[in-house]
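mind reviewing this fold:
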Amino acid sequence: MPLDLYYVPGSAPCRAVLLAARALNLSPNLKLVDLHHGEHLKPEYIKLNPQHTVPTMVDDGFALWESRAIITYLANKYGKGSSLYPEEPRARALVDQRLNFDIGTLYQRFSDYFYPQVFGGAPADKDKLAKVEEALKYLDTFLEGQKYVAGPNLTLADLSIMASVSSMEASDINFLKYNNIKRWYETVKATAPGYEEANGKGLQAFIDLCKNMMKK
């Protein structure tokens, strides 16, 4: 059965899905979406995803978007019994909480702070930066005495948050000053399957894009 992933390499949500796919030993058919030329606005793409966002997954005719929904779906379907998305209710709830923290707090605050600078030429906003730092302090607290963000094992939460936090390398945010985050960051880089291919290359593309945009 075909598993297609419409994606942009530099996108943090797309990189989260690539990390999860590798960890689940999946090899989706990668379909690059050229946002610059409006491929995400073509009728055939909007038919798949009315919000015309990336990533979008199509699994045997079933279309789904929003990266955290995609990765939990993939784990539910293809990773039964995997510690990536544990089935025990409390352990799974903790993973879900961290995923919600990522989309609603950590990545949201980073986006609010950094993307207006990259894509709109806006000056850095100190208040928005303070909100990012607050979110990083929360993450650092989650990691106190824990190897990974949701306990002793690598989970989907680590992969999603890794995509978000690594994107901060393109900015002036020094997330490595937080000791627990620094330790965790190096641990995930070393233990996430196929890290360089799934996240490292796309991250470099994102960093290069940001540099070029901010020169304009």
Q: What stands out?
A: The chain is about 60% helix and 10% strand. The longest strand covers residues 3-7. The chain has a mean pLDDT of 97.
